[in-house]
Design a protein that fits this description.
The protein has 490 residues and is of the alpha/beta class. It is 43% helix and 22% strand. It folds into 2 domains: 1-102, Maf protein (Alpha-Beta Complex), CATH 3.90.950; 162-480, pyruvate-formate lyase- activating enzyme, CATH 3.80.30.20. The structure holds iron/sulfur cluster (SF4).
């Protein structure tokens, strides 16, 4: 579908709305050969009223909608005017898309990654009911999702209020896995294919961590949390993992951390020794992720573990003394029925993990899955039913949603939500997702995020792939100089 605009240049706002509805279609400003579908968004001014008209031609039919606002009611300052104008464009595109798609979106015109940020802003000047009304009336967010983000923002507020100006977090990237899951689109290398890179990679990562440790000390920063993620960090063998964990232990004062997470990830990488080393060297939180407890689906996904292996790995983590364990599940996996997903949630609840993260399957280009064009409404209802079931069961069992984010191309444009037993919320997830403190990133694929004020973020990228990181480590040095110069100014 081609996007055209007349009288304004907010084609990206139109794109985000169209893509939310028509996530399985190619949507672009460029004409697509042989595709007659198009969306035209036009600005019009009449009698002191600003109109945005949208006309969508889709599969041989035409759908129209308009949004309007009095010109003297538009905000005076440039930035707020721009935001209000974008919302007008999105509302018009939303109404036209709703008719064309024959479906509504639970998230309305909210297309950003972090809806809890908006909920927090609304709560500053509104009570709960006022914020709920604004989300539903002005942003077209359903009651269910509006209540969800208001709950999340309430849980997060205490965590965010506790952040100090010298606080910082550290992300350590291990871009390796034992094998590649079919739905995965992360930068992750199979150890079977790239095993020769692991030792030099860990050696250089250790060098980078030593330099970041000096940087943090020299600037008297307060390291609050460390997150070792990937990939699957426990895909490193016991010796390499011990080398890494020992370096972290020796270079940073882990006893002062509020949280230290090791993503253990797949059950087929977890051993008693890896867990006991992690515990002895200060790790406080681990993730043991089944994604589903349906053995048939696990096999199809290329995850080389079973439901029983997952249970075994979870018990090993408990026996090693971890008091905070996260488990990830995915709603919408190919071939997974509502009943199978429900069984997965119920299975997990029997283990009483402190955190459960419920993801919606994201279908991206990098993934090996070839999703057929599916009927949008059917898929949306199926996946939303799974998320609703998880939310109900987790709430009945004392969990609260504490962090939430949205990704592009998730099935039904739905969300990912982290649930926690009260007091066990993952601080790193909140710090990182809500962008309330700088996060330094170490390793290939890692990105450092620096806060510039006014909600702006500066990102410093390490090389994406381990072989680049190994081949040209001087880039890390240059990145650290940028980080130092930026943090020094603060
Ligand atoms: S374990 Fe995670 S990162 Fe690794 S291939 Fe599977 S989904 Fe991707």
């Amino acid at each position: 579908m081609q996007i055209k605009t007349a009288g304004h240049d907010e084609s990206y706002s139109v794109y985000t709305v169209l893509k939310s509805f028509f996530w399985f279609e190619t949507v672009s400003e460029k004409p697509a050969c042989g595709d007659p579908d198009e969306c035209v968004s036009t600005k019009r001014q009449e009698n002191g009223i600003l109109y945005i008209d949208t006309e969508i031609s889709y599969k041989g039919s035409t759908y129209r909608a308009s949004s309007e606002r009095r010109e003297d009611d538009m905000p005076a300052d440039t930035l707020s005017y721009k935001r209000a104008f974008k919302d007008l464009v999105k509302k018009s595109a939303y109404e036209a898309s709703k008719s064309a798609a024959g479906a509504d979106l639970k998230w309305g015109i909210l297309t950003g990654i972090r809806p809890a940020k908006l909920a927090r802003d609304l709560r500053k000047s509104n009570d709960y009911d006022g914020a709920l009304k604004t989300l539903m009336d002005d942003y077209y967010v359903s009651r269910e999702k509006s209540e969800l983000i208001l709950k999340v923002s309430d849980v997060q507020s205490a965590i965010i209020d506790g952040v100090g100006c010298k606080d910082i977090s550290l992300y350590i990237s291990i871009p390796f896995c034992v094998s590649r899951c079919s739905y995965c689109s992360f930068v992750s290398h199979s150890i079977e294919k790239a095993g020769n890179l692991v030792h030099p990679y860990v050696s250089l990562l250790i060098r980078e961590l030593l330099e970041l440790s000096s940087l943090i000390s020299s600037l008297s920063l307060n390291l609050r949390s460390i997150y070792i993620g990937g990939g699957t960090p426990t895909s490193l063998d016991e010796n390499e993992l011990l080398r890494l964990l020992s370096c972290v232990y020796d270079s940073f004062d882990v006893s002062k951390l509020s949280e230290y997470t090791l993503e253990a990830g797949r059950a087929d990488t977890i051993t008693k020794k890896k867990l006991s080393d992690a515990k002895a060297l200060g790790v406080t939180r681990v993730s043991v992720n089944p994604q589903t407890t349906n053995d048939e689906i696990l096999k199809k996904l290329g995850r080389r573990h079973t439901r029983e292996d997952f249970f075994g790995a979870f018990y090993l983590a408990r026996e090693a003394g971890f008091k905070c364990i996260n488990t990830d599940v995915i709603a919408g996996l190919p071939g997974e029925s509502q009943e199978s997903f429900m069984r997965t949630v119920d299975d997990i609840l029997t283990l009483e993990p402190e955190n459960v993260t419920v993801h919606t399957l994201s279908v991206k280009r990098g993934s090996n899955l070839n999703y057929d064009r599916v009927d949008m409404t059917r898929e949306f209802e199926r996946v939303n039913g799974m998320l609703s079931y998880a939310s109900e069961r987790l709430s009945e069992n004392g969990y609260l949603p504490y962090y939430l984010y949205r990704q592009k191309s998730t099935l039904g444009n739905l969300e990912n939500t982290g649930y926690s037993k009260p007091g066990f919320e993952s601080l790193y997830n909140v710090y990182m997702m809500e962008e309330v403190m700088p996060v330094l990133g170490a390793g290939a694929g890692a990105v450092s995020k620096l806060l510039c004020g006014g909600g702006r973020i500066e990102r410093v990228f390490n090389y994406k792939y381990p072989y680049e990181y190994i081949d040209d480590f001087s880039k890390v040095k240059r990145n650290h100089e940028k980080l130092e110069a930026f943090l020094n100014k603060k």
